[in-house]
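Sequence in, structure out.
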Amino acid sequence: MRSAFIATIAALAALALPGPARAACPSDEAVARLAEAQVSGGTAPAYTGLSMGEGECARRKLIQLLTARWGAPIGYKAAATGEAVQRNFGLTAPVWGALFADAVSVRDGAELEIGATLQGVAVESDLLVRVRDEGINTAGRDHVAILRHLDQVIPYIELPRRGVSGQLDGPGLVAIDASSRLGVVGAPIPVEANEDFAARLARMAVAFGDGTRELAREQGSALMGHPLNVIPWLVEDLAREGLRLRAGDIVSLGGFAPSVPAQPGRTYTLRYEGLGPAPVAVSVRFR
């Protein structure tokens, strides 16, 4: 079964891939092993010594293989949008991965078992937005202009899973689709396309705890100086691959603080203070 799966997805990866001229890539077989690990909850060896171009090439292959199993991506995940996370991976700029439906499949208050497919899952404070229309691709950098092309802000605990053993650097993070896997969504908040809403996004406090203590507290501005600054960066980086944001796409804006390993018996709660008249929260428990 294992060898048949690897052979099938390796054959798919050999098909022509969209985008600009290719750098050298990890082998089809290596990407196939990673795809199998992502699907089954297993672990593959981490890539080492990749250039950023090689990491991007591996990401294209991996996304194609995961699409064959999970369906088309529903949007994008921006990763390393905070300086602390960039330092962890030796990066000087964010990176992105594709989001699949599982990334928004868990609802606020859910209880999850850390079984075979969730071994090694982590917990991270995040935030989603939903794209209203394709005008987002030409909205530029003005925050209110960007808000006009978004219709929801969604509380979000990301549950990333690397699926690899060994140390990861920036290109290695890109190659594994930025650890995209699962996530917990709260009640959507309608976007207000005005200066006040934009200001609240930047100055809100983002508090993350595990039921025993507060693990991190950051401002919205921890993401590239303002959460909405992630959007023009992503638009430009996707354009290098011949991609663009589309109506209905979900965008994960990135982690406000480094992720922590999920622990059985803990309830993780993410609270946004100052975004609305009362704090907004989303939580998940593990057993």
